[in-house]
Amino acid sequence: MVQTSSISQIVSKYLSEDVVNVKKSKIGFTNDVYIINDKYILKICKEKENETNFAKEVYFYKLFANKLPVPKIIVYDDSKKICKHNFLMYPKINGDNLYSKWHLMTNIQRKRIIKQLCEILRIINKTSYLRFAKKFDVNQNINWQSYSVDKINQHLSKVSKRKLLTIRIIERIKNFVNKNYNVLKPQKISLVYWDTHFDNLLVKNNKIVGILDFERTELASIDFGLDVIKRMQDYPKKYMSKDFEKFGKKKDYMYLLDWFKEFYPELFKFKDLDKRLALYSLEHNLDTLLWYPKSKTVKKMIAKTIGYKNSD
Fold first, then answer.
1. Do residues 98 and 113 make contact, with C-beta atoms less than 8 angstroms apart?
2. Domain check: are 36 and 79 in the same one?
3. Helices marked H in 136-166 — which ranges?
4. What phi, psi does 17 have (nearest 5°)?
5. The predicted structure's pLDDT at residue 310
6. Which of 62, 230, 307, 308 lies 20 to 30 Å from 1, alpha-carbon distance?
7. What pLDDT score does 311 carry?
8. Would the CA dihedral through 150, 151, 152, 156 be positive or negative?
């Protein structure tokens, strides 16, 4: 946790007001997020290995400043002179976390929100990625099939070495990947903002007024954006902060993919899409297992994806 003195120095340098109130946000898994005077958001990159992603977020906020309801950067400082971590600050967007409102909406209202979200995602997907790739040394000639399968195999190798799953289920995973990896060959590479869970969306009067956390926006096949959407539909509480978990009822999320298909059909124009999404899910859950090795829930998710009845 960042010292209050560092926060005061940041505010003193970049804002013409004193620190009256500082509240640490409960939302934010990778970085520390503070609400200053209920008017500004201070986001601090607490992990050195995340600094490149942190810089990417700043890049995308500036790139989409006049196109999307993204935060307007007041300062991004990576000098580590005032604070020992990189940080950024922007005016707080006046809106509510979508998870806090979704359960109160009718399906008609929810559908309208998804339509807005699809329009936002389409703008991102259609934006040229050449400057981004050059700035962050990203391979523009990505082979989506190889890239995706390599990530699965890397996670699986670590899981195997740490003996987090039985030999039997590991072999089943390998067979599943070998049987289905060819479905990933078709690709449509674009900028993909795939962290679309509702913690990252702010709404006001049933309108999206803020979209946050672009750290993991990357070059990917356009359908990869459906991975998180499907996971929210299948496991509504997956990305919720504890305060909102009580609102995570599956019936409220059961039409997400249907609405996405209606408003952004291009995402669904891949043969064997279900198998593609299964492979994306497998990669995600293997990675999650490395972070939470004792999680029975994650093991069950992996087993379900590959059609394995036992999750031991």
1. yes
2. yes
3. 144-161
4. -160, 160
5. 62
6. 62
7. 46
8. positive
Closest CA to 116 of 240, 249, 264: 264
Domain of 79, in residue numbers: 4-91
If you search the block for the tokens 């998180």, which residue do you land on?
Answer: 228
What pTM did the predictor assign? 0.93
Amino acid identity for residue 302 in this structure: I
Q: Give the whole-angstrom CA distance, residue 92 versus residue 42.
A: 9
| pLDDT per position as a tens digit, 186-210 | 999 999 999 999 999 999 999 999 9
Band of residue 29 on the pLDDT scale cut at 50, 70, 90:
low
Give me 247's structure tokens: 């609102």
pLDDT at 30: 77
Query: Does 30 share its domain with 107?
Result: no
Domain match, 219 and 111 both: yes
CA 79 to mean position of chain CA atoms:
27
Distance of CA 194 to the CA centre of its chain: 5
* pLDDT of res. 3: 59
Burial degree of 21 (CB within 10 A; 0-12, 13-18, 19+) = exposed
